[in-house]
Amino acid sequence: MSERAPRGKFNWGIERVFEHFYFPHMEEVRLEFEPRVLMILMDARPIAEDRLQRFAQRLMDAGVIFFVCWGPGCKRMHDAADWARSAETLEALRRGEDPEEVFEARNPIIMTTYHYPHDEEVEQTAEFWCRFCYPPAAWGPVRTWTSVVIGNEEWHDRLVHHIETRPLSRLERGLSPEPPGEETE
């Protein structure tokens, strides 16, 4: 029997590119367009909602389809991404357009999660990002996992160290998943 994982709804075992960025301020973040899974680490507490929403829109315009948010106030960034997509959808409807057609070049849906530092360390959220944040295959090929850390170099260093030294899961290597309770490296 083959060790390859079934190729159903997700592209397991794909060769991914990990890229990591540090920016002192969110206004400095610039990403070229490419479909990507984003892990964003920042303290969103002091930032006005409208600024977070504009930032989320800029990230979606750069191809982000999956937001994994970590840091103090991370739910605010998560919500900003959801509201930014909702605003796009409402604007398309106001113009009499079909949102699915408007978003055809991008995906009509985005995924968002948030992870509080008092519940999870950077490394735990990074593990979630690596192991479970595979967009559905119907969304087309997504091979870039991007981390953006804003304003905290220690978080950036911890994240990069973890990603560079972690063992790959069986799914990440393109193998059949582990039976429940028998998960190994």
Descriptive report:
Residues 28-129 form the DUF7684 domain. This is DUF7684 domain-containing protein. It comes from Fimbriimonas ginsengisoli Gsoil 348. It holds the Pfam family DUF7684. The chain has 185 residues and is of the alpha/beta class. It has one domain (17-165): Protein-Tyrosine Phosphatase, Chain A (Alpha-Beta Complex). Helix content is 34%, strand content 17%. It is built from five helices and five strands, in the order ββαβααβαβα. The chain has helices at residues 49-61, 74-94, 99-102, 122-132, 153-165; strands spanning 17-23, 36-41, 64-70, 111-115, 144-150. It has a five-stranded parallel beta sheet with strand order 1-5-2-3-4, sandwiched between helices. Helix 1 links the parallel strand 2 (36-41) and strand 3. Helix 1 packs across helix 2 (74-94). The longest helix is centred in the middle third of the chain and has 21 residues, at 74-94.
Distance between the termini: 21 Å
The helix/strand order is EEHEHHEHEH
Structural class: alpha/beta
SS summary, helix count: 5
Using the CA coordinates, give the radius of gyration: 17 Å
Average predicted local confidence, pLDDT? 84
Q: How many strands?
A: 5
- What is the name of the CATH class? Alpha Beta
Kindly state the percentage of residues in helix: 25-40%
Low-confidence region ranges: 1-11
Overall domain count: 1
